[in-house]
Amino acid sequence: MQKEQEFIDRLYARVDVLRGDAAESVTDALIPVGTGQQARLERDLLVVERSGLLAALNAVDGSLCFGRIDLTEKAGGAVHHIGRIGIRADDTAHTPILIDWRAPVARPFYLATGHTPMDIRRRRHLTTEGRTVTALHDEILDLGDEERTGFEDPTGDAVLLAALNSARTGRMGDIVQTIQAEQDRIIRHSHRGVLVVEGGPGTGKTAVALHRAAFLLYEQRELLAKRAVLIVGPNPAFLGYIGEVLPALGETGVLLASLGELFPGVHATAEDTPHAAAVKGAETMVDALALAVRDRQQLPEPGAPLVIPHDDGDLILDWEIAYEARQGARDTLLPHNLARPHFAFRIIDALTAQLAERIGADPYGGPNFLGPDDLALLGKGVAASHEVHAAIEELWPQLTPEAFVADFLAEPVHLDDEDAKAVRREVTGPGDWTPADVPLLDEAAELLGVDDAAERAAAEAARQERIAYAQGVLDLSRGSETYEFEDEDESEVLAAHDIVDADRVADWYEEEDHRSAAERAAADRTWAFGHIIVDEAQELSPMAWRLLMRRSPTRSMTLVGDPAQTAEEAGVGSWEKILAPYVEDRWEHTRLGVNYRTPSEIMDVAAVVLRDGHPGFEPPSSVRSTGVRPWVRDVSDGSDGSDGDVVGAVAEEAVAATPEEGRLAVIAPRRLHGALAARLPGVVAGGEPDLTKHLVLLDPRQAKGLEFDRVIVVEPGEFGVSDLYVALTRATQTLGVVHGGELPDSLQGVLVTQA
Ligand SMILES: Nc1ncnc2c1ncn2[C@@H]1O[C@H](COP(=O)(O)OP(=O)(O)OP(=O)(O)O)[C@@H](O)[C@H]1O
Asked: What sequence ranges are listed for the domain UvrD-like helicase ATP-binding (predicted)?
């Protein structure tokens, strides 16, 4: 222990130096450096680099080193300490003193077993509190090795069990110290396309996906720093729950978002009925929306042309002219807003010809009197007419995705009557969008296109301005060189103008304005992410998949889910069905089979429910047991002293069971939330739940993906099989059931009656 403490002391001494260096150079770099172009550029680069290192050092402080592997004599006998990030010594060779857990050298720490020791003779887990070593656990992997340290852990799982039994905080922690071999294989999986991670509740799917993100950020640092990683979760509360895992691993270049946040400028928080969400998510929406866009490309009624007043006499925009123009514009195959100028051009052309015909026609049948200059002038007049543009706008309006989808929802077309009725609603403000509307907005944006000609022109003008400015700065730097260096013999020193030109500098200025890749990605609908991780992927609708696939042109994705926990009607049943349209069969399937969350006493009960409702699914097996069986309290006949009052009984049980350390969740049908909130201390009904509170009230959908020390499930007879399975598998310690209504058959006889 003493020796490890000495190592940790040395390690932190080095970290303190590194941190001091990093902080100093950030501070130094922030001092204004005048107008010297090169100095400013270097300063900016340095600030970014050093503040990244500083953030990583700060994030992992206190839990920097957690493991050690000792190689066998035959393999050289080296000793490697393993940590959350890598640290090198200050020697000329930059010798590693702490190995990043993601480095290949660290891999045996996770994979070596007595059967396959991978040249390791001893694996050690170090537990630290702050900078103090508090416990060591050793596993001997080379059975011929006689040396004993006194810290041997015969079962090899003491550290894992301690982690699994520890009180929950309402925030997920990293598992980097105890990643299991089956999990490690997925985290480091070499497949670069779509990787599916399937497994029952508590098998660590979410944890594995997050550690895979950290691994990929390490392995493909350059690419992913530029293109960013997107993590999609089912709702903001869940994202809050998992949001601290990657920063704790020193990784911050990640965007976490729920579906409702994936259309820039929209924060969709309103709710749909399950039926409406299912209709909006179905693939039939693709055609419905495409046809609705075509409906907006109109023609005047035959025989009832638009009459447009004009200085040189009325212009007649009839069915034929509009039809020809619409056909020509549609033939470009461009999205609606981009095809619009083609439509407008053709209309203006036809109306100009009409005018020329009228003004310049030779009454005796000869050629038109007007020459090309006259025609050009006439055309200009037509093109400048507000009335002409109003007519074009009437027939082929410029549309935004928001306005178009709002119109579609107010009057749904190209859907059957029942579906149209389910989705019909008024969207009057930004607060009315639902998550299921977001893929529709995205689809609409594709169909409509953005006519950004004006924006592009403005951007180009701004760029030209930057180039001119940069050129000026470079000229200044050239001019000042003689002055700055005239007394010193430093003319060999490279100055900015020697290595860059104004174009490059202008680009740097542009980048300087910009945010991190993840921030830029959040604001850009067309951003192509370097990697996308989707949690609870089984819940996403076909329309949501279309949106995500647009964000991932390289199809570098990790999809995590458990079909047995699918709740949404819109969800897609099988991975084959989801993926075939995008990657055919070029995707890899992996499975996790051990439940780390739920003790076997609880999992046995959940397994009965699952097998009863979904016979095809196999529940995972629990890695531990607590000896505490789940209980039930039946208030229906009032014999338990509750007078049949479910809410009162739940309040009583919850107050008695709320832990001082750790969390308790009451999972109840929505209809009871108001009454329960009134009786449960500190609980508010509605809105996003605050998971850091000791007592939390949720419905099964909100509970998905989360976990608590204790759980009380209320009126399980009101839940469908998947929701019930989710609710029953959230506890790490104890589970209770309170009901006044019918208990589902599958729960009869498997719970102990509460005394
Ligand atoms: N190797 C491990 N070491 C320590 N804890 C682990 C390990 N693997 C999983 N866990 C813990 O088990 C719990 C369940 O993990 P996680 O939430 O990732 O499971 P899941 O498969 O996503 O579950 P669900 O489908 O129910 O959402 C978490 O507390 C996680 O930290």
From this structure: 178-599
